[in-house]
Amino acid sequence: MSDSPRFSLRFNSAEISRVFDFGRNTRTRTVSIGSSSYNLLQAETNESRELFRDDTRYADGSAKPIMSFRGGTSWRHLDTERESLSLDLFWSSHKENPFRPDIMPMMELAPLCNFRNLRSLKLTGMLQSYQLLIWQTVWLSHGLEELHLEMALEPCIRHTFCGSWPKIRGKWFPRTAVTARGLYYGKNGRGELQRRVGFGEYLDKHAIGNAKEAAAAVGATPDKLPVVKLTLMGFVVDSDPFFLWFNPHRLRSIEFKDHCVDAGFALPVQMSEHVVVSWPRQDNPGEPMWARRVTPGEIQLIDRKRTANKGDKGKEKAGADEQAASKPGQGKRSGKATVSQPEDAPSGQPARRSGGGGLLHIGGRRFLRKKKNTD
């Protein structure tokens, strides 16, 4: 028989419940964890709803661009099944995040290709070309009808470039053509002008073709673009994309807004019969002007009093007479002499000076003349 001591461990129910958190505490903690998870989910849902408070529409029903869109995690707050999407891609400053670039990178717009049910797509405030992703989204959205693209800056054509490209405004008028010109002013299908031509956005036929190949690797694509209404702002446009990629049986409207340039734009003959082309009718819209810094003291503020009407003048004069009569001790300055307020006198008497030189009778009223102090 071994003489080694024996140890017995005894725990009461209170200690067991305290150690393993049995009973009521377990249920309470489970409920608290469940409620906290629900609160976090509810807060995330509210955050997703409140993130884009500017996701509204104009009076005519068209969608307003979401100005607070910043890419990145903002995409998860947009339903990919929606039929209308309007985004503003302009980054005004990087004060919110000093490490953020000044221009939205291309890959920030990559989730746009996940929207397959769009009927209207509007992108504004673009500071660089995103045509590869935009046209890929258009190829994958078979029901897309309205495509609205706006650049933040207008294109700049070099003075040394030999081409004569008019601005699409005023007395400009669209032309028709039988075949495409076959010219290309883009930069390797990136939607930008060649540097020898200038700087700006170019409606790039190669960018549309490359986007179709990329979209075909993901899903089914039609033979021609499904766009019905095309709106462009700040684009350099020629005729080749309309001959190659736009469907003559669907395209019905082309709207050129401000700062578009004609680089040989022409509609195919079969399109010209039913496609409506619109452009700004003003010859000279507001041109930018030079400004200079103003030094302190160069600008002066002039406070101009309001001119009273004739009726108001009579009321003001009557009120002044009543106020003057109520203050007989206060004088009124007129020329070199200072006279007191008038006292009633028989009307109809001519103006005269009294013998003592102290009173003046003017218009039936007496005025007390005060001598000028020469001390």
From TrEMBL:
Residues 363-375 have a biased composition (Basic residues). Residues 301-320 have a biased composition (Basic and acidic residues). Residues 280-375 are annotated as: Disordered. It comes from the Eukaryota. This is Uncharacterized protein. The lineage of its organism: Eukaryota, Fungi, Dikarya, Ascomycota, Pezizomycotina.
